[in-house]
Amino acid sequence: MSSDLLALSATEAARLIRWKKLSPVEYVGAILAAIERSQPVLNAFTVVTAEAALEQARIAEGAAMAGAALGPLHGLPVSIKDLVDTAGVPTSYGSAVHKGRVPTKDASTVRRLKEAGGILVGKTTTPEYGHKGLTDSPAFGITRNPWNLDYSPGGSSGGAAAHVAAGLGPLALGTDGAGSIRLPASASGIVGLKPTRGAVGHGYAPDVFSSFSYSGPMTRTVADAALMFDILVGPEPDDPWSLGGTLTPVSAGLLGNRIGGLRIGYIRRMANADVDREVEAATDSALATLADLGAEVEEVTDKIDWIEEDGRILMRTGMWARSRAHLERWGNQLDSSYRDFMEDGRKISMERLREAEGARTQLYQAVQHLFGRYDLLASPTLVTPALPVTHHASRDQVMVNGKPQGFTRTGWTSFLYPFNLTGHPAISIPNGWSAAGLPIGFQLVGRWWADRDLLRLAAMLEIARPWSQRRPPHWGGVK
């Protein structure tokens, strides 16, 4: 067994616990010690449930030694993003408005992870209400990237990404409302899966019928993402999208070691005008690997309206509707970028909102037509690697190849949000590092309910282009 417990994948640790070669108490204790060391440096957690986690680890160890039936996550530490309710543990949505709020029941995703044997070690940081792709908030401060502390781990699942990347636990539950799983996965050098709309019940969205928010796994390896995904999948009565769909088996073309005949459409640009040169080179290299494995890779040349403006309208009107009541009492304590986005939402007319909703339908249909020709779609995850922690989401433009390219939606995250709006599953996997040592991500997008195709192809790329052996400078909370 590896002497470095922090380097264990979830699948490895679960196997060792099942074989009685790894103590859950020792393992969870090592994770908690690393979290404690890391907090002054990375600030990835809003709360750490150390006492309860160690008690659960003792119970898990007793069950393992007694030969009891063990769940797939038995004795494994799991973190939950601060946007997801956890019974008896504060959930504040990254906001001073709700700081200290303690839910009385678990969200269904949390319940499933616990029923599988997972042990909650804490809640991870998010920007206020998960509103932006950088993880800092007036309530909890700045979360930093373990690859370089001057950079953000991304957001809004930034605490989840930072702690997984730094070896502070193998499994994190994130949420993705506009790329918030895939964005920090790319910026922090880990795996992040946004499932098909409805594959994982997500009944705590403000509006479940028009929702573009998802829950999904964030891990260091594809196998761990698949393990966690299989546990999370399932219906939830409060989420109508989760009540009827069925995941499809892995496609026949992905069952071997080669993928001859698999058709992959490469999307070079969406709403963005440019892509960082290092990101583009890394993307070309990943596409070449897919071609070497036997895939047919073709650039998508269709003229598609990726509805950057309409998507922004859908997002910011929701922010205004959700939080306008807090302005009078909490205005000065709300994040300035959140206030800016709310003000944008306030100005939008009902007619313009309805037009944006119609544009969402047209985007879905355009992407569906692409899947008439392609088995999967591919793109960079982000336009550039991680942004500095000082970047202001609503006031600073993103610099791409030395030129300003707009704010984060167009200048950085343009490849992400469209698939929140269309419902298609999408995964980000590590795809090398920039010359400055910052991670670069590669995105794969599948047909509705073909989540396992994404995981299978991502696993093949992980074998061909391994990443998990490389550790950030701030691994394990070391300063």
What does this structure look like?
There is one protein chain. The chain has 479 residues and is an alpha/beta fold. The chain has a single domain, classed as Alpha-Beta Complex (Amidase signature (AS) enzymes). It is 35% helix and 14% strand. It is built from 15 helices and 15 strands. It has an 11-stranded mixed sheet, sandwiched between helices. It has a two-stranded antiparallel sheet with strand order 4-5. The chain is globular, with a radius of gyration of 21 Å.
How would you summarize what this structure contains?
This protein has 479 residues and is an alpha/beta fold.
CATH class: Alpha Beta
Number of domains: 1
Mean pLDDT: 96
The gyration radius over C-alpha positions equals 21 Å
- CATH topology annotation: Amidase signature (AS) enzymes
Low-confidence stretches: none
Assembly state (oligomeric): single chain
| Proportion of residues in extended strands | 5-15%
CATH superfamily: Amidase signature (AS) domain
User: End-to-end distance, in Å?
Assistant: 26 Å
Measured as a percent range, the helix fraction is 25-40%
DSSP E strands, number: 15
Q: Report the structural category.
A: alpha/beta
Biggest β-sheet description: 11 strands, mixed
Order of helices and strands: HHEHEHEEEHEHEEHEHEHHHHEEEHHEEH
The 3D shape can be described as globular
Which CATH architecture is right? Alpha-Beta Complex
